[in-house]
């Protein structure tokens, strides 16, 4: 029997929002700080934004590398409707070049047949409602590079009563940042390290624009956001760097923004580093908490103490977690059931019951 022919999904190409023409005839993309300057037909570093017809176009609009229902804690978001499910998807490409990328098969994809599912913004919003998902997440690769698609999906979701979550490295420009986050309800931002040297050597990027994104979210939006740092042995886990990062975090973001320290495993082009010891995550958490940060978590490990939410007022455990599984729940609304301390975030009267399931779905 002959195998069925593989379905080919033709790309939908739409005009990008952030670009301008240069005097030498090239077009400059202004969505991220790379400011790629492109001749006709050339693609940017991200591969999906292209100079076509003397303008920047997005070549992956409406196309996904796949859809999956995840626990919201996997994004990770611990203070945004805990226990609920989120419809997750990404596209292809990325505007960073992280040597340790743990989604490299998607973020470094250069073949459009990697984009196996197709869906309009309205289809995604309706699917999220039908599947009982509280939110939709743009994840697996960075939504900054498919911002126009992500914003349209977010608008459709908002009309359907579904929240939108950006899982991003925060590598954006002053021009693109306000419009993008105007459409988002929540975000998790990767703070990959706290030195320019780390960003230059391991991500082919810069630290400062990421810090600008974090400050923008904190001081100029109502977007709920949390921060994640993947701790890589010998690269960004020194006590000195963690002390400086925690000091900056406390001054610029305040005590109520959750911070996740997660464990590294060897992947992509960084195979020479060991797994992160759990003790490293615990030490990082202790350093950040000593600086006055109230909600600091460990991730990618089984650590009930480090992954649970504790009341800053009385010290009682309010939300018990073991990886993505929820246990004890001691909140009344958004307040501690023991002392009444107000806990920052968005909480339902009762936690969701999605658990740690991961369920792939097909929308088309």
Descriptive report:
The strands form six sheets. This protein has a nine-stranded mixed sheet. A three-stranded antiparallel sheet has the order 1-6-5, with no helix packed on it. A three-stranded antiparallel sheet has the order 2-3-4, with no helix packed on it. It has helices at residues 104-107, 121-130, 147-159, 176-182, 196-203, 208-220, 239-252, 278-290, 304-307; strands at residues 12-15, 19-21, 27-29, 37-38, 49-51, 56-61, 63-64, 66-71, 85-90, 117-118, 135-138, 163-168, 186-190, 224-231, 259-263, 296-299, 309-310, 317-322, 325-329, 331-332, 335-336, 359-361. The protein is α/β, with parallel strands linked by helices and 364 residues long. The radius of gyration is 20 Å and the shape is globular. The chain starts with 11 loop residues before the first strand and ends with a strand. A hairpin with a 7-residue loop joins strand 3 and strand 4 (37-38). It folds into two domains: 12-60; 66-353, TIM Barrel. Mean pLDDT is 92; it is low at 1-9. It has nine helices and 22 strands.
Task: Spell out the blueprint of helices and strands.
Blueprint (H helix, E strand, L loop, with lengths): L11 E4 L3 E3 L5 E3 L7 E2 L10 E3 L4 E6 L1 E2 L1 E6 L13 E6 L13 H4 L9 E2 L2 H10 L4 E4 L8 H13 L3 E6 L7 H7 L3 E5 L5 H8 L4 H13 L3 E8 L7 H14 L6 E5 L14 H13 L5 E4 L4 H4 L1 E2 L6 E6 L2 E5 L1 E2 L2 E2 L22 E3 L3
Parallel strand pairs: 9-11, 11-12, 12-13, 13-14, 14-15, 15-16
Antiparallel strand pairs: 1-6, 2-3, 3-4, 5-6, 7-10, 8-9, 8-22, 17-18, 18-19, 20-21
Helix pairs in contact: 2-3, 7-8
């Amino acid at each position: 029997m002959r195998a069925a022919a593989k379905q080919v999904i033709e790309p939908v190409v739409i005009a990008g929002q952030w670009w301008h023409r240069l005097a030498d005839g090239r077009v400059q993309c202004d969505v991220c700080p790379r400011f790629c300057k492109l001749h006709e037909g050339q693609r940017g570093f991200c591969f999906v934004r292209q100079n076509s017809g003397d303008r920047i176009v997005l070549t992956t609009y409406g196309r996904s590398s796949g859809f999956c229902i995840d626990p919201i804690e996997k994004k990770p978001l611990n203070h945004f409707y805990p226990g609920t499910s989120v419809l997750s998807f990404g596209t292809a490409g990325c505007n960073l070049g992280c040597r340790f990328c743990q989604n490299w098969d998607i973020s470094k994809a250069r073949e459009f047949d990697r984009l196996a599912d197709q869906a309009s913004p309205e289809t995604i919003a309706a699917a999220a409602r039908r599947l009982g998902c509280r939110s939709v997440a743009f994840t697996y690769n960075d939504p900054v590079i498919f911002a126009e698609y992500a914003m349209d999906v977010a608008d459709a979701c908002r009309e359907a009563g579904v929240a939108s979550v950006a899982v991003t490295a925060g590598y954006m420009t002053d021009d693109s940042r306000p419009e993008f986050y105007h459409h988002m309800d929540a975000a998790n931002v990767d703070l990959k390290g706290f030195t320019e040297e780390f960003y230059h050597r391991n991500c082919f990027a810069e630290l400062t624009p990421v810090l600008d994104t974090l400050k923008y979210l904190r001081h100029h939006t109502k977007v709920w956001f949390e921060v994640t740092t993947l701790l890589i042995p010998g690269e960004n886990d020194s006590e000195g760097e963690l002390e400086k990062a925690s000091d900056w975090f406390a001054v610029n973001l305040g005590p109520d923004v959750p911070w996740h320290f997660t464990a590294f495993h060897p992947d992509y082009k960084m195979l020479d580093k060991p797994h992160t010891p759990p003790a490293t995550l615990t030490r990082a958490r202790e350093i950040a908490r000593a600086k006055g940060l109230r909600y600091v978590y460990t991730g990618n490990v089984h650590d009930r103490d480090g992954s649970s939410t504790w009341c800053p007022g009385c010290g009682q455990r309010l939300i018990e977690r073991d990886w993505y599984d929820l246990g004890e729940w001691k909140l009344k609304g958004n307040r501690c059931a023991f002392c009444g301390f107000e806990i920052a975030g968005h909480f339902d009267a009762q936690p969701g019951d999605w658990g740690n399931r991961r369920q792939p779905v097909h929308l088309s």
